[in-house]
Amino acid sequence: MGMPLGKIIVTLLAGYLAGSVINFLADKLPSPYVKQANNRAIRMFDYLLPWLIHLKSSVGYRARHWIIIFIVPTVFVACAFIKTPALQPQLMAVVLFLFILISVIDIEHHFILRPMILAGYILSLAIGIFLRDFIPTITGFLGGFVPMLAFFLLGKLFSVKLSKNIEKGEKIIPLGFGDVHLGGIIGLLLGWPSIIPGIFLAILSAGLYAASSLLIMVISRNYQPYKVIPYAPFLLGAAILLLCI
Q1: What backbone phi and psi angles, to 5 degrees, belong to 25?
Q2: Is 43 exposed, middle or buried (0-12, 13-18, 19+ CB in 10 A)?
Q3: What is the pLDDT of residues 95-106, one digit of tens each?
Q4: Which one, of 155, 144, 165, lies nearest residue 228 by Cα?
Q5: How far apart, in whole angstroms, are the C-alpha atoms of residue 105 and residue 102?
Q6: pTM of this prediction?
């Protein structure tokens, strides 16, 4: 039996509000750490009405804003229809909100904010303990954190050797420690042994993305050998996918 029309409308409005908040936070939270193209103050209310941002900001309502506004309500309704076996739609919406926000900031700025990491740990630990016993939840944390820590250390060793061959000694960091924390976060969320396919799926999808990006760069003759890959969408996306099946 399908959802009542009223519930669909409410879910779409909730998704629109969540998408607007994600856009606002994704613009505001990284501001102390990055150079802003526009210094004009934009209020949260402005993100509810896209044309106000276009009028107030020299940057305008960017493509990402429209994508988020479209995707988040659609995903919220999909979650309400699908009814994932692990989580209730409302709780899944909270997880999606946080994970999408982390992914957007990582894609645009290549870092993960500490408050987002802390929120991820608290949320995933609470959900993990709610869904299963304490031991599988903590074991899942280790199953996600330890492999990502190993990748981080290997990447750091690689970056040291690589930086010696780059002019001005510029450091190249293939994997940040925030990604290590994300491994622990999805480990708490998925538990043991589900974290194993979770890490595998994240690595596989990131590898396919890297390979396709390399192919596109070669074809377009715009080769960028030190292009940084945001791993948050792949780690968090793998966790969401496994929660839905």
Answers
A1: -65, -35
A2: exposed
A3: 999 999 999 999
A4: 155
A5: 5
A6: 0.86
